[in-house]
Amino acid sequence: MLRVLLVSFLIALGTYYSLQAPFYALLFYLGNAYFRPEDWVSDDIIRSLNLSFSIGLYLVFVTLLCKKHLAWNGLITFCLLFLVQAILSVVFSPYAEYCWPYLLEFVKVAVISYLIVVLTTDFARFRLVSIVIVLALGLEQGKQGWFYLITKPGGPNINPVPFLGDNNGVALGMLMLVPLVGLLYQTSHWKWGKTLWGILFVGCLYRALSTYSRGGFIAAIGMGVAWWLLSFRKLRIGIVIGLILVTIVPALPAGFWDRIDTIQTYNETKDASALGRLHFWEVARTMAAANPIAGVGFNGFNKAYDDFDFLNGAYGRQRSVHSSYFGVLAELGYPGLVIFIAILFLSLVACVRVRRWASTGRLPTELGKSAIALAAAMIAFIIGGAFLPSQYAENLWHIFGLTIALRRIATTSLVTQEEAQRQSNQSIAA
């Protein structure tokens, strides 16, 4: 009953603010997308509301009605090309009937990601979007992380999250969230706020590591190194990372390190999980060789697997590709893979550029810290995504949207400063 009341209150609050402006409707949509209230209650009325579709439709309608300025740049162009390639892959796929529902879901993800770009026009809004995503997704996961850290230190926590997937998906999702939590800590001007964000940071990080995901462990290292290398104050960040490691590492038992050690010894121990991945990647290459331009169809690897499995079910039927890159290659062909890699590369370039502008004093430090957080989140995906089919995941494409929005905010700030400087020079000359 209490959960129903809480969810009902949140829906009422989101509805009220959504009527005020499109940006608040965006926050309502993101909160619903990551919190998934229908998974928290058994009330049929709330489930029948179809909140995701209803809020999304309203968000698109009210944004068009308010005639917001549309955004366009090179990175958006590549994102559009990826969507076009996804559509073509289904049009020419022998598994089109299976692929269409997944494609339609991705179209929704792409539209919301673009609306993040259009409606997130300053740092205050950027931070609000980050807060909503972090709280909606990370609050429960961070609580679980602390619960296991205190009550069952070292015990594996492999409870799946519906839209993140199994333990590997949870690990990657949390590692992509952790930099945003860190950003909120760094940009909080409230002492208690910093404390709460710090607690959530540790909880989400432990939640990721306690899944015993080997890919997640490697991604965590990559994320931490990237964050430290890009940070403005390396000594301070290094000390913080050290303190976190002192808190978490002792809680990880020998079983965890035995699991991680199999990264090097999978071939000697005949680790079926690792060897299976190698086979699935080879099957993906076979699919791409047979369909180099359009692939087998958007999200169609599982459906097509049995037709291309040259070991005839040795690792099971209708298996997953277990890699974002091989997944794109198999499902969207070589053009899709090139476009996807270009999006990742250009997103990192955008973050590095904003970070450089902030380091020279041309932009506020907050924008530079935001760029560092987004870059760290993408590094986590680049590494962790090599072992997980998360190429169409909502959180990844929202990160792309936030990256493009941050670049636009930075560019607008630079133009404003240059214009102010020009007017000042004209006044002095006059």
The separation of the N and C termini measures 71 Å
State the shape.
globular
Give the averaged pLDDT, no decimals.
Answer: 89
Number of strands: 0
Cα-based radius of gyration, to the nearest Å: 22 Å
Q: What share of residues is helical? A: over 70%
Provide the structure class. mainly alpha
Low-confidence stretches: none
Quote the beta fraction.
under 5%
Major β-sheet annotation = none
Give me the strand/helix succession. HHHHHHHHHHHHHHHHH
Distinct helical segment count: 17
Quick tags:
430 residues; mainly alpha; globular
Give a description of the structure.
By secondary structure, the chain is an all-alpha fold. It has a domain at 69-264 and 322-421. Helices cover 75% and strands 0% of the residues. It has 17 helices and no strands. It has helices at residues 2-18, 22-35, 44-48, 51-65, 74-91, 96-119, 123-151, 167-186, 191-209, 214-230, 234-248, 254-265, 272-290, 301-308, 324-359, 365-384, 394-429. The chain is globular, with a radius of gyration of 22 Å. The termini are far apart. The model has no long low-confidence stretch (mean pLDDT 89).
